[in-house]
Design brief:
Two copies of one chain form a homodimer. Chain A is mostly helical. Chain A is 75% helix and 1% strand. Chain A has a domain at 205-295 and 310-322. The first copy, chain A, is built from 16 helices and two strands. The first copy, chain A, has a two-stranded antiparallel ribbon with strand order 1-2. In chain A, a hairpin with a 2-residue loop joins β1 (88-89) and β2 (92-93). In chain A, α3 (43-53) packs across α8 (159-184), α4 (63-83) runs antiparallel to α6 (101-119) and α8 (159-184) packs across α9 (189-216).
């Protein structure tokens, strides 16, 4: 991450750390503090700050809305971890493991409310717009999570349905985050639509890149073992593309997935990916969304120096090796 | 419930029934519709409507805020039912029984967002105040629920702590509900404080009456079997008053609670209640809070005919036999 993005991240970190929560009941507020202190790229609140700067206002004007987005995002992580029975997040125990499920459930609820409290630290004439964008986005994130859970029991899902699911589950929040900053900076309706489009396309490129790296990443740069998604039997963009290309012949891929010897399963699925050039298809798809994102950005009437930073961000997210 | 209150309830029911939710994903939105269709006294949204009328505006002006309160309340029921592993609500399966825990968790999350969406269907200059009251109240409800869960593992709790817990868990929302209506009707800060005070005291009287009826109600009017709380070993205002009165001698009550034969347990606890006149103490406490509530009401500068209706409501809630 370049020094500019890192500066924003550090400021967000400082503000998150100085949020003043009551001390009691400890089982409600300590998990919230814990969760907010776990760190991360803070990409969503960074987008809120940049969304403000893009339209000529100091990014600090949108700090409260940036915090709202990050607190909301962390609420979704706490509840998703319950739903997925995940035990570890950022190398530390998840809230429901460190405390218990009921405490995680309730402190997640509290975080939504605290997110709204930060959102509304703004001028009266901006509240309606901020609320509309935030609530619409929040509900879409819930929809995405529900589709994700629904699809977990399906043998396969069409690519358009998969893309719509990841759009709702992750990309819309990037767009919503950026819109909140833009609203603080009095952006026009057209500009709001453009930043949403820009960030959603970037988000889709980012997610497909995630799937891509898991199978085609460089072992040394990637950090984790290659093929984790195949090991877990997870349906990713790559799997669903392969299903689509195989058409009536898709039993071959189901058979490969049903091999119980894990390393043989990885080899069999990878062989099908290679045969169908799923790697090339994924690269094209990532390029399609990142190009769309950069083209949308180029058309936005905003601060040119901020636009170059956003363009660098897209390249950073797409060219990454882990 | 008298015909005026019933008229408001019917209107709220109609509006709840016509909330336009998306049809997909069905596992997100169907549980929400189900929950909102289960009925109930709708006492909280009624208070929102009356809170508006009390200050001279038509109650329909506050319908969206009334819906926000009821949707929020139903979210708390969905999540509380998960936390309590409750299987039945209003004689029907709870959401996590009818669907599953993950679906209940997520649709509860969605309900908070939908509640905020309704809250903000108001004029710009009222949004900040509405948001402040709503979020403060929502967080206090979470605090009350956390204290309730914390106290479940305690042998006993002091009466002040118990009262603070039920104030947070239930009474503040009655006050918050009423304040939202009052804000829509441009009530002053002083009037907002007064309605909060009025409704919280009424709420405390209501909750202690709940505990009272469970042990001292008339079997025929009460509907449920008398002594249910004692059977379940639940700590209520009555138990905690008895602990307080027994002082160093409180092992006697713990012994009574530890009797495994359920009907003997009920007899033993009731014998201690009778010996200490816990019934009389509870009646005094209920009267204390309802008097406080009525005194506060009398001092509010508001529509006199609405004040009489609120006074009738207090009497209805306190004199009820079930």
């Amino acid at each position: 991450m370049d020094s500019y993005l890192n500066k924003l991240r550090v400021e967000i970190e400082e503000h998150l750390g100085s949020i003043d929560l009551p001390s009691d009941p400890a089982n409600l507020y300590e998990p919230i503090e814990y969760m907010l202190s776990l760190g991360g790229k803070r990409i969503r609140p960074i987008l809120t700050l940049i969304g403000c700067e893009l339209f000529g206002k100091p990014y600090s004007n949108a700090m409260d809305q940036a915090l709202a987005v990050e607190i909301f995002h962390n609420f979704t992580l706490v509840h998703d971890d319950i739903m997925d029975s995940a035990e570890v997040r950022r190398n530390l125990p998840t809230v429901h493991k460190k405390w218990d499920v009921n405490i995680a459930l309730l402190s997640g609820d509290g975080m939504i409310v605290i997110a709204y409290q930060h959102l509304f630290k703004a001028q009266n004439d901006k509240l309606k717009k901020l609320a509309d964008v935030f609530s619409k986005t929040a509900l879409e994130v819930c929809e995405g999570q529900q589709y994700d859970m629904d699809y977990a029991s399906y043998e396969t899902v069409s690519l358009p349905n998969y893309l719509e699911m990841i759009r709702l589950k992750t990309a819309v929040l990037l767009g919503g985050a950026m819109q909140l900053g833009a609203i603080v900076a009095d952006a026009s309706e057209k500009q709001l639509e453009q930043v949403q489009h820009f960030a959603e396309s970037m988000g889709l490129a980012f997610q497909i890149k995630d799937d891509y790296l898991d199978s085609f990443g460089d072992q040394d740069s990637f950090g984790k073992e290659i093929g984790g998604d195949i090991r877990e039997g997870k349906r990713t963009w790559l799997t669903l593309k392969a299903f689509e290309l195989l058409g009536d012949d898709n039993q071959r891929l189901l058979d490969a997935y049903s091999i119980t010897d894990i390393s043989k399963r990885v080899d069999a699925v990878m062989a099908i990916y290679n045969e169908l050039d799923v790697k090339g298809c994924a690269e094209k798809e990532i390029a399609k969304y990142s190009d769309d994102s950069l083209k949308t950005l180029a058309n936005i009437e905003g601060e040119e120096n901020v636009k170059s930073k956003l363009s660098a961000l897209v390249h950073y997210l797409i060219d990454r090796e882990n």
